[in-house]
Amino acid sequence: METSFTGHIVDIAGRRTYPGTIICREGKILKIRKVDEVREGAPYYLPGLMDAHVHIESSMMTPVNFAKAAVAHGVVGAVSDPHEIVNVLGTDGLDFMVRNAGCTRFNVCWGLPSCVPSSCMESAGAEIDAAETAELIRRKDISYLSEMMNYPGVLCRDAEVMGKIAAARAAGKPVDGHAPGLTGEDLAKYVSAGISTDHECATLEEARRRAALGMKVIVREGSAARNFDALARIISEAPDMTMLCSDDRHPDDLMQGHIDAMVRRGTALGISIWDMLKAAAVNPVLHYRIGSGLMNPGDRATFIAVDNLTDFNVLQTIMDGLVVYSAADGGLDRQALMLAEPSSEMPNRFEARRISEPDIAIGYGPNARVITAYDGELFTGREEIPAEGLSDPQIQKIVVYNRYGHNSPKTGYIKGFGLVKGAIGSSVAHDSHNIVAVGSSDADLVRVINAIIDAKGGIAVSDGRDTDILPLPIAGLMSGLEADELSARYKELDLKAKRLGCRFHAPFITLSFMALPVIPSLKLTDMGLVDVDNFCFTEVLY
Amino acid sequence: METSFTGHIVDIAGRRTYPGTIICREGKILKIRKVDEVREGAPYYLPGLMDAHVHIESSMMTPVNFAKAAVAHGVVGAVSDPHEIVNVLGTDGLDFMVRNAGCTRFNVCWGLPSCVPSSCMESAGAEIDAAETAELIRRKDISYLSEMMNYPGVLCRDAEVMGKIAAARAAGKPVDGHAPGLTGEDLAKYVSAGISTDHECATLEEARRRAALGMKVIVREGSAARNFDALARIISEAPDMTMLCSDDRHPDDLMQGHIDAMVRRGTALGISIWDMLKAAAVNPVLHYRIGSGLMNPGDRATFIAVDNLTDFNVLQTIMDGLVVYSAADGGLDRQALMLAEPSSEMPNRFEARRISEPDIAIGYGPNARVITAYDGELFTGREEIPAEGLSDPQIQKIVVYNRYGHNSPKTGYIKGFGLVKGAIGSSVAHDSHNIVAVGSSDADLVRVINAIIDAKGGIAVSDGRDTDILPLPIAGLMSGLEADELSARYKELDLKAKRLGCRFHAPFITLSFMALPVIPSLKLTDMGLVDVDNFCFTEVLY
């Protein structure tokens, strides 16, 4: 079957457009033929956009449903790190993701998580060591070693950490970084280990230092961390060293805009469209050696149409020669996007037993350590107060409960969520995804936790009377719902949490980082209260 | 010993300058300390410039003398391909270059030539196959596999060619390219073989296509090929993908200016100084993993001082903490530059015996094939004319004579040099460096050829009465003279060649490419007349 698309051909390398026809045969680009002219208002055809770093699980959607949402924004593929599900299910989780994504034409470049578990101070569902990494990294469906968060391990040249990196390099696959705030000689040492990207830059200065060392800067605009405005200039200064990513995005954010929105925002800031398109479409294909996607003859016939290079509204997304999304003509064409029907499997691991109020009681002591949460931040502060101060209505209880059946619930105190009644909880709790809940009463905490256990995963709100849950039956991380329905349900729960008095912009996102002991300063994991700064466990009451 | 240098510190990564003091101890940078202010007119300190691709032999100077000339222009190192001497002497030539350069603080990053010999249609003095390449590329003093000129071999995935590339990649060393004019799918195929640079771009379009495929573009301004003006824009468009080089430069050109002159020219064209400095100083260090040279603490204390970032006049070149060049204070400090006295060795291979006129006689035939030479071009044209037309005074004889003692002299006809009397000759004749001569009479041709044989290499002019020669006793390629003296002698011979009627801008450079059978279209080698377009030998008279 031969199909053709006529319009302005966007030649990113040549920094020009020209009138032409893309001729596709059997899903591939046969050639692009120049024509004399095209009709008024003809579309602009260009390579599809790539999300250069994303944890698909954070969308709470399966890869299939993520793809359905992404193609509406001209995103034809993603460099995806299945870090969340692999921490829950090990390679079974990886295999599920690969199989599920493989049912679509959406092009996922899969990474092998480098930090499973992320820390020895929490219990994950799996462990992948250097020896297993060396086996897995050779798989054809694995393209890179994903974010090496253990930068202390890199800096001290820990044998396990270096073994994983060496295995990836020997297999000729790039190693992704994750080095928030790292500078100077430490940064140089981190890069010299062979780590070639970072998506954690928060300042232009950080981005420049990384690019100057030959490291690619992946500019992030997620639901929580939003770095685009601060980093935009690096795209002009080092257009070949930058990519764009969403990292962690909730479904409602994904529906609003994706990499296309970053391109629009960049050009509005005065960045050349050619530099933006290098970052958005070209550089991920080169860096991750995706091997197709730049509209060269012989490539898969996967590209997009936009109205023009200023407004940059996506009109069509074409994959393997088929129009899978058309803004003017019915939106998504599910049948065109899919290669096969995904199985109905819902892999999970949820062994925790229901709890009751005595399980989350805390003893007595003269003083208490209280976690301080801040709106939209992954880090926390700490307060040390006399125990009588715990009656402050701004302080609530936080519970983290091992979902794999290993430990009893751990309870601590937290300030900042502002719940005046009820409780909220989630089985999305980076990076081990145990159950985390914050509540104004033990009864409500027990209610949301048990609701999550009954559903084998989900996000839940108890308002003191009713408990509402959005089940996440796939690994306790993902729903089977599509973006619109999922987004609507998510927004309902978000609103309910806010009605309990929570003043955070995104309560469940902030909640999901309260159990992550690799980010300072005081965190509660399923193993207990962690003094991250001193890398040790500590007592709630003392 | 601790030394310090105070002025404006040029922070290329940060795209800014700040007042500071560079503190050096034992030849290394200990730290850079910010200061409150510096004196009016204080110098600007920045990383030294790197020539990212050069054949030092083309300067006709030894590495020691090349270094002496280079440091006066703020060039502290070079990525050098000893292609010429290795084609003459094999690894003995490589070892000589490494030893000689090692007597200085000048930082040479040595490549292993990938094409020895360059062609099966000429006789070189050595051969390096894939098996030997696999051995040699592992040497610590070898940093990359140098220009892979055999692009037909790459495109057809020739086993020997691919074996050399695979060996370099297995050793973790980059592979340099050389792909003039290659486009489209052929270019993509060439890049996908693992070749990561090209210094042969002549148009912006070529440069953009290469950068778009992830290939670094080395912008060249040599004595013959001058691409800077055509390519300058790529430095703004893809500042992390570009480097600057001289490739082949004669001593007089090197004395005029080097990478510093390219920086000045770029900023005069409106290119940001920061982008120019990335190309001139930073990118070669990153691409070739030189590991020092960016003024980081712990780096060798090798950097330069300029008057300001607009005029960009080099005031000082500092190496390992020592001032090796000071414009205001005596120029070059030989003692500071040198680490050891170079040996007086002059490796060579020159077995050819003297010839007489009958050796260069041509037979009889009704028609003749005539090479057409063009000013400054490496390619030639061809004419096929009746033999009686050979009496045209614009047509001279060209002789190529194997210097290794293998073949008798080969003689052909050439047009374009415009010699009305006398002859010129050279033992610099790419890539096998046999003797090449063009002359208006057999007597003069014999005279220059025998003078070159007697001297075991050199460039020579006979004016019908006297023969003048600049001896090149090192491999028939290099003199022991320093730049100023060598340049003066070279200019004398150049002038003498022009007095014979030669209208070429640089007669000896053009002459040196007349025996190179990898560039179209009709060439004479020591083995005979080569029809390059059809890849076969052909008859002069037919």
Automatic annotation (TrEMBL), chains A, B:
Which residues does the UniProt record annotate as the domain Amidohydrolase-related? 45-323
Give me the reactions it catalyses.
adenine + H2O + H(+) = hypoxanthine + NH4(+)
Q: Which residues form the Adenine deaminase C-terminal domain?
A: 392-535
Q: Name one Pfam family in it.
A: Adenine_deam_C
What sort of enzyme, by top EC class, is this?
hydrolase
Q: Which family does it belong to?
A: Belongs to the metallo-dependent hydrolases superfamily. Adenine deaminase family.
Question: NCBIfam families this protein is in?
Answer: ade
What is the official name of this protein in its record? Answer: Adenine deaminase
Give the taxonomic lineage as stored in the record: Bacteria, Pseudomonadati, Bacteroidota, Bacteroidia, Bacteroidales
**What gene makes this protein?**
ade
